[in-house]
Specification:
Radius of gyration: 23 Å
Number of strands: 18
Strand order of the largest sheet: 6-5-3-2-1-13-12-11-10-9-8-7
Distance between the termini: 34 Å
Order of helices and strands: HEEEEEEEEEEEEEHEEHEHEHE
Helix content: 10-25%
């Protein structure tokens, strides 16, 4: 019977569990072998609900959401390169779960597993957050079985883009099979303490984690991490305005994972092209396959000057866009607003966010659920034309809709 090797741990614990396709092997006497990873694409949704305390004073609640789709590519032999984007939505309110969400940060990731070596992350910006957590033993286990494994976690408490990778030692217990939403699942309990002390930064915290794996195929359904962490920056540290302060978070983070059925990009592009043939040549919608999925680029969107109000002439394009998206079920749509750069960066950024949100509102009014959308504005920071010319500025005033893989 196949055993789990170090490579399986890497594959299994890239942020959360990489799904596997085959059922669990089972020994006589009811013992089971917990799942090894495979090389399939997978998605992550992470929702955090924390109370925040600054220097011991309660500040309020923090609601954060992170989404990602991770796609593997075989680089030859046992080497797989994983690529994707983490979309971070800070301060997400609980009553916005059925709404479109504004993206604060987009973090591209690229990492690989080489043989039995540790996870190798290119340009590590703190994602995936967990490395080698959770980890499962190679032998078959019965309810009550316990084990210990080392892992790592990247922490960036103030979202400053300077993550610190902290080692951890987790204790695990297999608690058997039960039902979760009428689905048989394996329940695994874990706990670990986070402790890191450096000259400029310290963290102490405790975590208890419930992990649910679907019995039929090992796909992870949910992980609940209940935490209490305190971050501190000693006086005289090099952390500038943070020196001498503490930040504490108490609450929980829910992580949902699932396998992905690859997007049929050719079919989406063919369908979109057929829909757009009725549009005039100068008001079409460009389509392209990109690493994230399929991108629909709508150039020279006609708004009222310095406004997010679309002109009535845009209705035909909006109707066609809505039909294309309605024919692509079970996907998230990323809407990105862009402006020409004419020397007002702050205003351009704000306007691009407003216009991206207006595009979402127009599409949801045509029957697409709002929760399928996330959106972000880029101002004039991503030009595709020369802002010194009328034609270049026309190209730069655009909205891009990506059907995410």
């Amino acid at each position: 019977m196949r055993k789990i090797c170090a490579k399986d741990y890497m594959l299994l614990t890239i942020l959360f569990l990489i799904p596997r396709l085959s059922a669990f092997p089972q020994d006589s006497g009811g013992a089971v072998r917990l799942p090894a990873g495979n090389e399939g694409p997978y998605s992550i949704v992470e929702r955090s609900d924390w109370s925040r305390y600054d220097n011991g004073k309660y500040i309020g609640h923090v609601y954060r959401e992170v989404r990602a789709s991770i796609i593997p590519q075989n680089m030859g032999g046992a080497v797989y390169q994983y690529r994707g984007n983490f979309f971070v939505m800070e301060e997400t309110l609980r009553d916005m779960r059925q709404s479109a969400r504004a993206v604060d940060t987009v973090i591209p990731v690229s990492f690989r597993v080489e043989g039995d070596k540790e996870l190798v992350i290119d340009d590590d910006r703190g994602f995936p957050e967990f490395r080698n957590f959770p980890a499962f033993p190679p032998e078959a286990v019965e309810p009550g079985a316990k084990w210990v494994a080392r892992g790592k976690r990247a922490v960036d408490p103030l979202s400053e883009g300077n993550p610190v990778v902290v080692p951890l030692v987790a204790e695990y217990e297999y608690r058997g099979v039960e039902e979760y939403r009428n689905i048989p699942v394996h329940r695994i309990f874990a706990k670990y303490a986070l402790q890191h002390e450096a000259q400029d930064f310290q963290v102490r915290g405790s975590h208890t984690v419930d992990i649910l794996l679907r019995v039929s195929d090992g796909i992870p359904l949910m992980m609940r991490d209940t935490l209490d962490e305190t971050y501190s920056w000693p006086k005289g540290s090099a952390q500038g305005g943070n020196a001498g302060s503490t930040v504490r978070f108490r609450g929980f983070t829910l992580t949902f994972g699932n396998g992905l059925v690859p997007l049929d990009r050719a079919a989406v592009i063919t369908t979109a092209a057929a829909r757009t043939r009725s549009l005039p040549p100068d008001s079409g919608i460009a389509m392209s396959s990109v690493p994230e999925g399929v991108k629909l680029t709508v150039t020279d969107i006609r708004f009222q000057p310095d406004s997010d109000e679309m002109l009535p002439a845009e209705r035909p394009r909006l109707d066609i866009l809505a039909r294309v998206l309605q024919e692509t079920p079970d996907r998230t749509f990323l809407v990105e607003g862009h402006t020409a750069a004419i020397g007002r960066p702050a205003g351009e950024m704000e306007l691009s966010v407003q216009r991206a949100k207006r595009m979402v509102d127009e599409l949801t009014s045509r029957g697409i659920p709002a929760e399928r959308f996330i959106y972000k504005g880029w101002g004039g920071t991503k030009p595709i034309g020369d802002n010194a010319s009328d034609e270049g500025r026309r190209l730069n005033r655009r909205v891009e809709i990506t059907i995410l893989e």
